[in-house]
């Protein structure tokens, strides 16, 4: 198949092997991002563990996250590649019946999408929104919750990028919605790590949350605390419930920070960021306690 380009330079190519949708049997050739050649210029790591990339003067803007998921251009079934063909008969029926809802969702958020075209920021964002929708129908055996968590945070990141480029569309509202989806799913991930209702360990290969480094379980603990700090006022109405969530996040974070200090194998960047976040949570909790005391006096 042909090689595709950005700014008239080669960026991606179509794989030779045919990818068949298990839901509607549509055939396609997966688009792959070409590596090397100075295409990706890594920038800073954000507090959300997102790796930013500088615009390449030769190749233009490249969004590596846009090429990760497999998406059927016909029925809009989307998933991480390892899960794409692993569907039960029940899942196939459910995903086939829900195809019109996915089409409606795409029209609501983007007006129109065409996954036969080359991936760009819009299609990359759409792929994660579709994946979240599809993983709602997947069975616990493939650990859908951590995959929804990662897809949600990536969708929020990319919607933020879209809003910066096209603020005349309500991408900011969609961004905020998927940030909240990420909060709820990361909180569920921590519960699942305790209960074992989903095999979270089977999803360690894609926990990311970004592509340049897989922070694994540390990423789940850190992002849960970070997102809880960011959105605690929206997660619960009462101050007591808000404080309970913040304290729980702080306890998990203390384990990450504590083991990080003892282990030379744990990257210092996650340990340092966890320590800073731990201190920030402590300040918020203390301020809430002081405010509660002053009201009761």
Q: Please work out how many helical segments DSSP would assign.
A: 8
Strand order of the largest sheet: 1-2-3
Q: Strand content of the residues, in percent?
A: 5-15%
Largest sheet: 3 strands, antiparallel
The total count of strands amounts to 7
Q: What is the CA–CA distance across the termini?
A: 74 Å
Shape: globular
- For the residues shown, what is the average pLDDT? 90
In short:
With about 300 residues, the protein is of the alpha+beta class.
Give an overview in words.
The structure is a single chain. The chain has 297 residues and is an alpha+beta fold. The protein has a domain at 215-297. It is built from eight helices and seven strands, in the order E-E-E-E-E-E-E-H-H-H-H-H-H-H-H. The strands form three sheets. The protein has a three-stranded antiparallel β-sheet with strand order 1-2-3, with no helix packed on it. A hairpin with a 2-residue loop joins strand 1 and strand 2 (9-20). It is globular, with a radius of gyration of 20 Å. The N and C termini lie far apart (74 Å).
Question: Topology of this structure?
Answer:
Layout: E1 3-6, E2 9-20, E3 27-33, E4 41-45, E5 51-54, E6 70-71, E7 78-79, H1 89-97, H2 99-110, H3 121-135, H4 144-165, H5 171-195, H6 216-235, H7 239-262, H8 268-296
Antiparallel strand pairs: 1-2, 2-3, 4-5, 6-7
Helix pairs in contact: 2-3, 3-4, 4-5, 5-6, 6-7, 6-8, 7-8
Q: Which short descriptors sum up this protein?
A:
three-stranded antiparallel β-sheet, globular, alpha+beta, disordered N terminus, 297 residues
